[in-house]
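Re: Re: ligand-bound prediction request (bumping)

Still looking for help on this. To restate: I need the protein modeled with uracil bound, output as structure tokens. Inputs repeated here so nobody has to scroll up.
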Amino acid sequence: MRELNLYPLWVRRDASVAAEHEAAPVVAAREVPVAESLPVAPVVVAPAARTEQAAVATDWPALKQQVRDCAACKLRAGCTQTVFGVGDENADWLFVGEGPGADEDAQGEPFVGQAGKLLDNMLAAIKLKRGANVYIANIVKCRPPDNRNPEPDEIATCLPYLQQQIALIKPKLIVALGKTAATSLLGRDATLGSLRGTVHEYRGVPLIVTYHPAYLLRSPAEKAKAWQDLCFAVQRMNP
Ligand code: URA
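Reply:
Sorry for the wait, this slipped through. Here it is.
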């Protein structure tokens, strides 16, 4: 909670009063449209690639192996290893980031660096935990050089893997972290601000959009909005 600037934490003294209000939403959905957007270049979403590539594997072991062996785009040559995803393979919650950074590239797990620590704290703030009813994955499985944004052809080549992960997990809610994740999944360019506060859909799965933790580390004042988004997500999950 402290990481989201939600401090001090006020705890209701009278438990019976708390129980009465348990069913009430934590925070109402955002009423005021927010016009802000992330300071990143617009993502141009490429049409589906992979026309002459092998079909994507349909079970977990084969999919993991396929990603491990993948060299379908130029990212693989510049990274240490592929970063498949981590967590509960039957999770209700799926958090999707952009792509591995240096720490993730070294460890083979998404969101293990500073942004990952903040993500773990964001999860804790809504009583979730990496690996327990939560799965974490990225749009691209290989680290883009110098932490640049993944390019449209790289996204299009890699996206079928995430699509298959989603088909296997069958999450109840996808939380897209940042503009690249959101626009890649939604298949259209838009500002992050315009995508927040709405329940979108990805292949039949509800999807909400919030800020990328790395952006929140650079712009801590925006954490309050991320907290609104998380509450919106909780509300969507437990109406
Ligand atoms: N940023 C991302 O988008 N994904 C990671 O795994 C780490 C940092």
